[in-house]
Amino acid sequence: IASSVLPICHDDERSSLLQFKESLIINDTIDESYHTYHWIYECRPKVASWKPAGGNIDCCSWDGVECNENNGHVFKLDLSNSCLQGSINSSSGLFNLIHLEWLNLAGNDFRYSEIPPGIANLSRLSYLNLSDSFFIGQIPSEILELSNLVSLDLSGNAYPGGILELRKSSLTNLAEKLTNLETLNLGLVSIFNTPIPHNLGNLSSLRFLSLNNCLVRGRIPSSLGNLLKLIHLDLSQNQLLSGEIPASIGNLGSLKELDLSGNILSSKLPASIGNLSSLKELDLSMNIFSGEVPAVIGNLSSLKALTLVENNFSGDLPAFIGNLRSLEILDLSLNKFSGELPVFIGNLPSLEELDLSENQLS
User: Domain Leucine-rich repeat-containing N-terminal plant-type: where (predicted)?
Assistant: First the structure.
């Protein structure tokens, strides 16, 4: 008769988890600086339940820990928002957990320390989230050796005390080595004065790509039009991203959210943008687009939010907006639209927010 009893955790892995716990402080009284610069205000001290003896010593049942039910090895560690404070070094017990496939340390306070190179020991990782965790300094090249990664999130690590940085050639190397990625979030990671590499368009499995506030420069590479599975694309607030939106953007038929705001993109919008039939949110604010808004945007029948604030769009308010029956947010403020306020504005059944201020409307 097959046993239904799940294996308890391995002694060495229990010891490694406890050593990792002991190397950090549990601080659930978050100070004001943490509140000011952190998005996550509440934490729960998951590791408080981890006991060396005299209680539940089966680490597979500890809060935040999951084990493989066939062999008992720890394969998942979710310590997001766990009130952890301190720094992690390469000799940490964490890096002895070589069967880990899933690691989430987001929303903790690692005290302006660097991501340790010991991360390379976790070669089976497919999911890694170190976002909003007070890591600063150079991202170690060892992360690029984690070739099984499907999801990588290093976003939100930018503070008055320092910022997380990616070396100039590292984004190119990342696209060469982490070819299985479906999610790449480098929001607020400094990739200062570096163009978006052409080979990023080779990551054919990507569904989520965010390079917002990275200070990348140059043009949006046309190769991003090869990312046919992409659902979310955020290149906002880079300030040095210039030129036109490539026509290849129209290939992204699965795209639901496109945010290119806060750059110096110019010229007219490509007609191919009308091919984005799944698009729900389009934000092109704070650029220097000019001319009329192309009528093909009227094809985007799923659109819920259209935000074109602070550009140089001109002419009458486009009549095609009346076709966007799902629209909930429409913000065309701070442009050069002229003419009369069209009747169709009152016929959008889902509209909740409307801003047409700072134009030349009568």
Answer: 10-68
Contacts 24+ apart (CB under 8 A), 28-37: 28/83, 30/83, 30/109, 34/109, 37/159, 37/160
CA distance 228 to 278: 12
* pLDDT score recorded for residue 3: 45
Residue type at 51? Answer: K
Length of the chain equals 362
Distant-in-sequence, close-in-space partners of 61: CB < 8 Å, separation ≥ 6: none
For CA atoms 73, 79, 85, 86, the dihedral sign is positive
pLDDT averaged per 10 residues, the chain (length 362): 64 96 86 50 88 82 95 97 95 98 97 96 98 96 97 96 91 97 98 94 98 96 98 96 97 98 95 97 98 93 98 93 95 96 88 96 89
Distance (Å, rounded) from C-alpha 171 to C-alpha 167?
A: 8
* CA–CA separation, 61 and 59 (whole Å): 5
Q: Note whether 55 and 22 are within 8 A (CB).
A: no
Distance (Å, rounded) from C-alpha 197 to C-alpha 214? 13
- Check if the beta carbon of residue 244 is closer than 8 Å to that of residue 267: yes
Kindly calculate the radius of gyration of the chain based on its CA atoms and give it in whole angstroms. Answer: 24
Query: What's the whole-model pTM score?
Result: 0.94
Instruction: Supply the pLDDT for residue 41.
Output: 56
Report residue 5 as tokens. 């009893």
Angstrom distance (rounded) from CA 362 to CA 358: 11
